[in-house]
């Protein structure tokens, strides 16, 4: 069976393609989800994608992923900079975690320069748009394969 990976997108990412296209690009969330699922198929991962604007719902999904997935990709949007509860939930997740941001948060307003999630993540990718998600899935597939063969 293919390893399972959950891609979680947080607040305002439902507006991808419409919201600040100069920053976040013209691809919609449906485009991003489809690209992640296709990349997963290419590298042997069963990818599912979810988006919510609600912190508690994101936390419930992280809890649910504990028993059902091997890795998480998470773009928590602005909650990355404000939430302590999401990183607490991630600390209780034993699988691989990749934090993602479409934009380069370090080249933007100072409040975006710190993410509480980064310290809980295996890896962080920002500034590459949707390519960052695809690269993350490739890296997850490689890491999981090397753990299986260890
Ligand atoms: C974001 C960056 C955050 O600062 C912002 O609040 C978002 C999106 C990104 O993908 O670049 O909503 O996480």
In short:
The chain is 43% helix and 18% strand. By secondary structure, the protein is an alpha/beta fold.
Tags for this entry?
globular, binds 1,3,4-trihydroxy-5-OXO-cyclohexanecarboxylic acid, alpha/beta, Rossmann fold, 43% helix
Q: Give me the Rg, rounded.
A: 14 Å
Bound molecules: 1,3,4-trihydroxy-5-OXO-cyclohexanecarboxylic acid
Strand order of the largest sheet: 2-1-3-4-5
The number of E-state strands comes to 5
Distance between the termini: 18 Å
Number of helices: 6
Write the element-wise H/E pattern from the N-terminal end onward: EHHEHEHHEEH
Structural class: alpha/beta
Poorly predicted ranges: none
Shape, per Cα inertia axes: globular
Q: What proportion of the residues form beta strands (DSSP E)?
A: 15-25%
Let me know the average pLDDT.
97
Structurally, the number of domains stands at: 1
Q: Can you give a write-up of this model?
A:
This protein has one domain: Dehydroquinase, class II (Rossmann fold), CATH 3.40.50.9100. It has 6 helices and 5 strands. It is globular and about 45 Å long. It is 43% helix and 18% strand. It has a 5-stranded parallel β-sheet, with helices on both faces. Helix 2 (29-43) packs parallel to helix 6 (130-149) and helix 3 (55-68) packs parallel to helix 5 (85-91). The protein has helices at residues 21-24, 29-43, 55-68, 79-82, 85-91, 130-149; strands at 4-9, 46-51, 71-75, 96-101, 123-126. It is α/β, with parallel strands linked by helices and 150 residues long. Bound molecules: 1,3,4-trihydroxy-5-OXO-cyclohexanecarboxylic acid.
